[in-house]
Amino acid sequence: MKILVDELKDYVGKEITFSGFVDAIRDKKWVMFVILRDNTGKLQMTIEKSEEKNQELLEIMANTTVESTVKVTGLLQENEAVKLGGMELIPSKIEITSKAEPLPFDFNNLDGVNIDTRMDFRWLDLRNEKNMLVRQIESCFIEAMRDFLYKNRFTEIHTPKLIGAASESGSSVFKVKYFDRDAFLAQSPQFYKQMAMAAGMNRIFEVAPCFRAENSNTNRHATEFTSFDLEFSYIDSYEDVMSLEEDLLIAGLTKVKEEYGERIKEVFGNEVIVPKKPFPRMRLQDLYQELHDRYGFDIPKEDIGDMNAEAEKLTFKLAQEKFDSEFMFVVDYAATKRPFYHMRDENGKLQGYDLIWRGTEITSGAQREHRYDELVKNAKEKGLGKDVEFYLQFFKYGCPPHGGFAIGVDRLTMLLTGLTIKETQFLFRGPNRLEP
């Protein structure tokens, strides 16, 4: 197993083999310094020119380009004068494992580099220390949320992404050829999460790709994104769902703050704030009124019963000013603006919510409708027929009350770092981007 830079302190005084990229070569009069790099940090390799045995090593490095990869065997020794961890590697053998051609841009200085050029060469863009940090932050966040669910006896499942019907609606799905018939890429695992509830699995979650055929060119939309979905049974109301999401996000943000809080502040200028329960809640109509009274904002006619990007931004401002919070649950959405499987009470009020964080909706959650007759009625009201027939079958043979939500992983990372969705996704997919 490769020794990583952040593990080197355990090997001081020992002969080791280290593999990584050549980050820089500094050829001085009496010595050659080579900075080696992996995804956890940098290491200085020092080659003294006065020693005869080093002539072959010096020649190898003189013919090596920056960003080539090397495998070095040598003695790792302490040297307080070395700024990189107070250690240096004295090589006895150097093997060039791949030689790099000249780079199309300097990934260490991305100022002025067009974002599409960066996306064209994403594997180079990701070598940037800042971009490497983004991946580590996201991984930490997801690990913490996964661990929270495992500890609360959730089961991780993996649902199909190729489906035979056009899911919740046929308007924003990708159609693909599936042998002699059409298939579709899943917009979400929603139907299968609920199937798991009907199967009696009780508590499940999934972290997986979702696909939306929406021609949206914004800094927060993508045609393929990673969704953190969960569903659980025997709830009394959607308040139970909101409470679980609060606990989940607190667990995730606590871990991120512990591991990366200082780096996020230093590199991105953002503070990781761990929220306290309960997050503030507002009814949609009350929110409209407050946004009007405070900021002179009125929701456009076509968005009444829902939110838009401007309303979400102002909701964040309101949450900070009124509740000293970065989060806001918005409830009492219009049933016409929500999927047919969201439960409604006896007055037709939707039993669901959106969660706004830092001016962006990160979650839609709800208590689901688990009663077969009500689901059939709601589906007919929405004009849904054959596309949801298979889904309706799940509820014919008994299904416990349940609810759940989905969190957009890429948006979480985007909001933590203040970057755009193109920069926070490992590989961005949008209306005009299908490679690499």
The CATH superfamily of the largest domain turns out to be Bira Bifunctional Protein, Domain 2
Mean pLDDT: 94
How do the helices and strands follow one another from N- to C-terminus?
Answer: EEEHEEHHHEEEEHEEHEHHEEEHHEHH
Strand tally, please?
A: 16
Largest sheet, spatial ordering of strands: 6-10-11-16-15-14-13-12
Shape: elongated
Q: How far apart lie the N and C ends?
A: 29 Å
Beta-strand percentage range: 25-35%
* Count of runs of 4 or more consecutive helical residues: 12
**CATH-scheme architecture of the largest domain:** 2-Layer Sandwich
Low-confidence stretches: none
Q: How helix-rich are the residues, as a percent range?
A: 25-40%
Quaternary structure: single chain
The largest pleated sheet is described as:
8 strands, mixed
